[in-house]
Design brief:
8 strands; alpha/beta
Length: 280
């Protein structure tokens, strides 16, 4: 990390809830807050790569248009026959990587490299062979993002140079620790609302699995937050849409129909937060 890379945006994972990060980015841009480095996990890698490629208003507009397009087109809602075939033939995932790749190619083109982005960018994925996190800091952009967003069961693992990767949320859902390790002075955490909703002991059998999943998702962030050095300025941006572990909306993970509501809610909440912090 260079001396000038003092402000870091950390974009966490969370599937369709990643729409809230678009609202946060809108508010940050209007407040003239821009990153020197962008770190992303899963959908956060997707959103973060766009901002790293097109900083400022252009990137934000591109993201808004992209999420609107996905909402109107019903990305991942169709293809029922293909999904049935995948399940019936015991394929490792419901969807094919190509579905998400087409969306990414629309934004970045097929051949862009990480080091070609305007702002330094890194994303994380979970290595199957090494049972640990892997940070992509250079090389082809699209495979890195696809690896970071390969949710087990929904997408197959992504193979890169003989190694196979699953979703980065398995190992570092909100990579605050990475920003600290790289020497960040100011950190803006763009999370999708999960960590705003506290956990409680399970009351029903199915809640045990949901809570266990949430602990796995949150523990790295919680540990990094607890060990945060006093000289780092941290901004944990509000989502305007807390997502409880038992939120029934999570069942409809493909549904992007409320994208505008998620974006607007996060925009309003983040704008208010930034205004209060600056005394404006």
């Amino acid at each position: 990390m260079t001396e000038s890379a003092r402000t870091v945006f950390v974009l966490g994972g969370g599937g369709r809830w990643g729409a809230v990060e678009v609202g946060m980015l809108q508010a940050l841009n209007e407040a003239d807050v821009h990153p020197d480095l962008v770190l992303g996990t899963s959908i956060g890698a997707f959103n973060g790569s766009v901002i790293a490629d097109q900083p400022g208003e252009a990137g934000v507009k591109n993201l808004v248009d992209l999420w609107q397009t996905m909402s109107e087109a019903g990305v991942f809602r169709g293809g029922l026959i293909d999904r049935i075939v995948n399940v019936a033939t015991l394929q490792p995932a419901i969807h094919k990587t190509e579905e998400l790749q087409l969306v990414l190619e629309h934004v970045h083109g097929p051949a862009k490299r990480i080091e070609e982005l305007e702002i330094p960018f890194q994303c994380v994925a979970a290595s199957i062979e090494k049972s640990g996190e892997h940070w992509f800091t250079e090389g082809p952009l699209l495979p890195a993002i696809l690896a970071s967003a390969a949710v087990p069961g929904l997408f197959p693992p992504v193979e890169i140079e003989g190694e196979h990767f699953y979703d980065g949320g398995l190992v570092n859902s909100v990579p605050l620790d990475r920003a600290i390790q790289l020497g960040a002075e100011v950190i803006y955490v763009l999370q999708v609302g999960r960590i705003e909703a506290p956990l409680r002991p399970p009351e029903r059998l199915h809640e045990s699995a949901l809570i266990a999943f949430e602990i796995a998702r949150r523990h790295m962030f919680a540990r990094a937050l607890k060990a945060m050095p006093d000289d780092i300025e941290l901004h944990l941006l509000p989502s305007g849409n807390p997502v409880a572990f038992d939120d029934r909306r999570q069942i409809k993970w493909k549904d992007t129909s409320n994208m505008a509501e998620l974006v607007d809610g996060a925009y309003d909440a983040t704008q208010k937060y930034l205004t209060e912090r600056t005394g404006g």
